[in-house]
Amino acid sequence: MVFMKNLKLGAIETRFANLIWEREPVGSTELVHLAAAELGWKKSTTYTVLKRLCERGLFQNQGGTVTACLSKEEYYAVQSEQFVAETFSGSLPAFLAAFTTRQKLSEKEIDQLQKLIDESRR
Fold first, then answer.
1. Are residues 51 and 12 in the same domain?
2. Can you give the residue range of the structural domain that contains 13?
3. Start-to-end C-alpha separation, the chain
4. What CA–CA distances, in Å, run from 119 to 21, 76, 104, 114?
5. Residues 11 and 23: beta-carbon distance below 8 Å
6. Whose CA, among 42, 45, 98, 107, lies 20 to 30 Å from 13?
């Protein structure tokens, strides 16, 4: 997808995105109230950030109803792929090797990874 490069969210944008993901579809008026309560935002701030995230292809606001163009899971999958691509030249084994040098995997994690590998082979 073309818009994926510009999808990184800052900490506050992530909190705002979570408000939408947790409640979608959500009315824009309700979103203004949620952002005021959760983030201390004014109406104008909410609409400005919403517009920016819509322009970046993450959400859409049609007829006053806000929905996600990308689910939370899809968003984090894209972020993970981008991180591995940028930091480890796209090599998942290189990422895992770096990750496990300081953080040892539990037996449960190893079993989960093995299950993912087995499913990928099918």
1. yes
2. 2-72
3. 26
4. 28, 20, 23, 9
5. no
6. 98
Write out pLDDT tens, residues 48-103.
999 999 999 999 999 999 999 999 999 999 999 999 999 999 999 999 999 999 98
pLDDT of 26 higher than 80: yes
Give Cα separations from 22 to 13, 15, 100 (angstroms).
14, 11, 32
- Is it true that the peptide bond before 25 is cis, omega within 30 degrees of 0? yes
Counting the structural domains of the chain, the total is 2
100 assigned to some structural domain: yes
86 in a domain, yes or no? Answer: no
Based on the fold, state whether residues 63 and 121 are members of the same structural domain. no
Predicted TM-score of the model (pTM): 0.78
Place of tokens 């030249």: 89
Q: 61 with 19, same domain?
A: yes
